[in-house]
Amino acid sequence: MKHIITLLAIVGLPFIALSAERTPTPPLRVLTYNIHHSRGTDNKLNPKRIAEVIKKTKADLVALQEVDVNTKRSGITNQPEILSKLTGFHHRFAKAIDFQGGQYGVAILSRFPITRSSAIPLPASPGHEKRAILFITIKLPDQSQLTFASTHLDHTRDPANRIAQTQTIIKNLPPKVPLILAGDLNAIPTSKSVKLITNHLKNATAKKPLATFPSSKPNRQIDYILYRNLHRYKPAKSIVIDEKIASDHRPLLTIFSPITR
Fold this sequence. Notes:
Blueprint: H1 2-21, E1 28-34, H2 47-57, E2 61-69, H3 79-87, E3 90-99, E4 102-110, E5 114-122, E6 131-139, E7 145-152, H4 160-171, E8 179-184, H5 192-197, E9 202-203, E10 223-228, E11 233-240, E12 252-258
Parallel strand pairs: 1-2, 7-8
Antiparallel strand pairs: 1-12, 2-4, 3-4, 5-6, 6-7, 8-10, 9-10, 11-12
């Protein structure tokens, strides 16, 4: 009897291992959100409300724009740290400019550990606000690595700065690695700057533009989620989150489904 039990145990081991190997990979949920330094269309400064919006989307990676660190208008608070604590996510911040005694720029929240981060300033002509792009490298549950970036381009009517900023981003994209870039590009899909970057990165909303601005009644898309070399994932669905009060932009969510082989 002992021999039979031992044999069954040995024979069963490969099936247990096979079952573990077949554990389905969950989708990757990516959000981009211009949070307007957490000031809503009701003129209330409320980072907790921003955090609640993020949590409801069940996002794994979040690119944030118009983020304040220790500025007077935001009550001398560190918004990336606050949002990190409220969501339970890891975070990084990149300064674009010094502002009101503090800093203003872009940030990232990540459900996954961040192994590396770097920031690159983007060019701006005199009289235009400087911008930046923030890169992080994360380790996914399957131990593969992914580069994720958050950026925010010039908002003025003159497209020259956006084109120059886009060219700088393209020059600094890490080669070959799996990459997702998200942010407020301040341009519609048919603009020169968006066409330029989508020559190098795929647009998750290319089939159907999704209006993200203004939040009260969106009539144009200026927020994007772009990607390349995603060997393990493909975009399955993109959604504009129905939230019109927390910021002057609506959040854009793309769900990347795992590629089964």
